[in-house]
Structures are given as structure tokens and as C-alpha cells.
Amino acid sequence: MTDLSLTDADLADLTADAVVIGLLNGDGGPSLAPGSETVDAAFGGRLLEALIALGGTGAEDEVVKLATLGAMKTPVVAAVGLGNHDGAVTDEAVRRAAGAASRALGGRSTVASTLALVNGDPSAGLLQAAGEGSLLGAYEFSVYKSKPAPANRRAPSAVQLVVPSTKDRALKASAKRASAVAEAITLCRDLINTPPNYLFPAEFAARAERAGIKAGLDVEVLDEKALKKGGYGGILGVGMGSSRPPRLVRLSYRGRGSKTKVALVGKGITFDTGGISIKPAQSMENMKSDMSGAAAIVSTMTLIAALKLPVEVVATIPMAENMPGSTAYRPADILTFRNGKMAEILNTDAEGRVVLADAIARACEDSPAYLVETSTLTGAQVVALGNRTAGVMGSDEFRDRVVAAGARTGEGMWAMPLPPEVRKGLDSTVADFANVGDRTGGMLAGGHFLSEFVTEGVQWAHIDIAGPAYNTGSPWGYTLKGGTGVPVRTLLEVLEDIAANG
Ligand code: BES
Ligand code: MN
Ligand code: ZN
């Protein structure tokens, strides 16, 4: 991963391969953001003029590069658009701009960024955002490239954030935090991007175990025998169609001074063909990302251990491959879950809720105060909210707390209801309920199904990340193609909120 550090050296003396500055887009045209003064001086006070001549407007995701031709030690200046702002630039605008800059600076191995200075004095939050964006935008997944990318395309290997003083405790802590967050999201993205022939349930469990042990977590892995013994009929049912059997991973962390118990659950379908209710061939390859919720939970667990959060968290992570083999579960089958409830399977492609049912039931046996579950659960989420906004359901008050945490991190989240008429759609004539309802309110039906497995009294939230977890479009901000790392930063924010306020 890219290295992050602070520097208070004068920009004119820095020997980085590129300097990043901010360009604001105001009603009166573009203007230079604070932090770019030294660079402007090197250009004889004509930096803005040069950027405008090259088409710079300061719009989001715009990067204009200039050669300094000896005017300063650094050979390249990259001006990155911050968008239009009334007043202070937001943390998220800086995070995105820093990401866009890293993406545009392929081939420059050391980068000095002034983006922490765009509001004048660097706040801890802004510095963290600049760090996170720089590191996340420099993400590369090259495990399956037989040759490394050519040197002139490789992402920056070191980023220095320019600050007034490197002795500032709060700023130093923010830079450390940014590195920890980026490391967790890198793990999350790597897991998602790993192809399903390499990442199958047993391998995913082994990787989660390794990451957990390295982070100092307690780890428990249930194999197919243990799942049978434990009555995990949902996980076993979905896993039956594959020659590669399912797993249930439990990761536990207990921070010093923790008062509140939290359960995390994440969907780990290593590949979703739809099973017997098979999906169309078009875009099926994207279903390697159907373990994004699980990847986010594993990563969040390693992150809270690294940051030593004072909270007690147990993660319960079901892993299975949804395949249409001759032993696959079928429409009309009835499965019995860990908590004794039974569901009629009407569509084997609604498999996420089936594995999550067992996992949520197991998680609730520990009597947590809160339960947060996240999953690439429904295509309906993407239809309703698009690719960048997750749908959040659950206990009204806690659901809104999760949405508010999302707003603070810049990860888009929107509160969704669980209306009683949608629950009626899941009624079954032969079992307690069916795994799908009529077509309407598909995202909400998923939420209702999961709610059947949450014990009374547990405050819970379900985050449907079907769209936001995996970017099939163009890169933007700090988000590349492939796994995004959503909602790791929101989960961290929620856990910090709980650690601080109960
Ligand atoms: N993994 C999919 C949901 C999904 C769709 C994730 C698009 C990411 C992008 C899930 O298992 C699924 O197939 N859901 C079905 C549910 C339906 C059968 C009720 C869906 O959304 O079509
Ligand atoms: Mn499915
Ligand atoms: Zn799925």
C-alpha cells in the first residue's frame, strides 16, 4: 500500500515527483485553493491563468497537469477540482479530489499534496480525508497480471501531506488513522476483486481467519459438519448446489473499557449464479462481488482492533457459493433455520437472506445491544437508489443513526421503511414465510425477511449495498472500478458512535 506521511517543508524545497493543489469552482470562475501560494509564486503569480488556459474550471474529478520546467524542484503540478462550495470545502470533497489526483498521477512515485490546507488551517478531519482519498485513489489490484504495470502508469507509492507543523499531535493521529482506514479498505477491495475460482467459501474463511489472527481477534470457523450439527439449514441449503461447501466465520473483539456489545453480520456469497433460478448470462460476472458485505465486516473488525475501539464486537459471517449443481436447493424446498423458523424457497436467487437468516439468529444468541448487517441483497436497491446510495432498514431510531453516520463519512445512505403490507407479500401457505414476495418493494421485502431473525429488544440495521459495494462504471473520486470498500467507513463511524454514546 501507498505510504503516507506529513511534511512541513517549504514546497519550493520539496523533491516530490508531483505537487497536488486544489482548484475551487466559484460563481466568478475558478480560483486557487489555499496551500497553492508557493506554487503560484513559482509561476510568477500566473498559475491560475495557466490552469484556465488549459481548460481548468475547478469542477469535481477534473485534474489539470502542468510541467514546472525548472520553476520549482518538483517537475509536475496537478491542480484538482474541488467543485463549487459556499464557505468551507467539505471533508468528502477533499477525499474525492485527493483520490482523483492519485488516479491521475500514474508514474509519479512520490506525491506532495496541499489538499489538507484548502480551508486554510488543516483540521484533523480534513487531513484524514486528504490522506484517505490519496491512498484509496492509489489502489491497484494486480495479483492476476502476469507482468507489472509499466512504470509510467503505476500509482504513487508515497504521499506526503503538506501541513504547517508535523509536530501537531491531532494531525499526526489523523494521518495514522487515514492509513489504518485505507489498509482496511484495501483488504476489503482485494477480497471483493479476487475471482471466485480463487475465493470460494473455505478459502474466504481461511483468509478471514488469517486477517483476524493478525489483528489479534478471536476466530472460530464452522465447516459443513459443524453447520449441520448447529442447525444452520439456510447456509447449508444455499451451499448444497456447489462442490465447495459453505462456512460460518466468527470474529470477536473486546476493546478495553467496552460497555456495549455489538453484533456485525455480512453476506458472503462468493459467487451468485442464482442457483436453479439461474441468472441471465449478461453481467453475471459482477456476482463475484456478492461477498462484499462479508468483506466489509472482516475489514471493519481488523480496523477496530487496530484503532483499539472501546467496544465489544462479534462478527458472524456466512460464506457459501450459490450454484445450480445436481444437489442444489430448489424452488418449493422448505429450509429450517438455526432459530427453528422455516421458509419456503420460491426463488433460489434470493439466497442472501437465506444464509443471513442463520447468521443473524446466531448473532442474536449473544444478546447484543445492537446488530448491524450489510449485504449486496437486492437488485431492487439499485433500481430504487442507484449505484452510490445504500438503503438502510431496521429499528427506526438506530437505522437513522446509521444513516447519519453515513452522511458524516460521505458514503451515501438513505433510510427506508419496512411497511406491513410488504411483509404480507412473504406469506406462505406451507411454511412460516416464503423467501420472496411479489415484485413490489423488493428491497423492503428483503429487510422484512431478515427482521424475522432479529431477537426482540436488539436494535438493528440492515444496509443493502447491492449498488455501492462494486463499481462497474468509470472510476470517480477515490473509487476505482471493482470493489469500493463501502460501507467500512460508516461501520467504523457507527461503532465509534456506540463506543462514545452507548
Ligand atoms: N446478489 C443479488 C443482488 C444483487 C443484484 C447484488 C445486483 C448486486 C447487484 C441477490 O442475491 C439477488 O439475486 N436478489 C434477487 C432477489 C429476488 C429474486 C427477490 C434480485 O434482486 O433480483
Ligand atoms: Mn441471488
Ligand atoms: Zn446474491
3D structure, described in words:
- By secondary structure, the protein is α/β, with parallel strands linked by helices.
- It has two domains: 3-162, 3-Layer(aba) Sandwich (Leucine Aminopeptidase, subunit E, domain 1); 186-501, Aminopeptidase (3-Layer(aba) Sandwich), CATH 3.40.630.10.
- It is 34% helix and 22% strand.
- The protein contains 15 helices and 21 strands.
- The strands form four sheets. Strands 8, 9, 10, 11, 12, 15, 16, 17 and 19 form a nine-stranded mixed β-sheet that branches. Strands 1, 2, 3, 4, 5, 6 and 7 form a seven-stranded mixed β-sheet that branches. It has a three-stranded mixed β-sheet with strand order 13-14-18.
- Helix 9 (292-306) links the parallel strand 11 (268-272) and strand 12 (312-322).
- Helix 4 (124-137) runs parallel beside helix 5 (169-193) and helix 8 runs antiparallel to helix 10 (352-364).
- The longest helix is centred in the middle third of the chain and has 25 residues, at 169-193.
- The radius of gyration is 24 Å and the shape is elongated.
- 54% of the residues are buried.
- The mean pLDDT is 97.
- Bound molecules: ligand BES, manganese (II) ion and zinc ion.
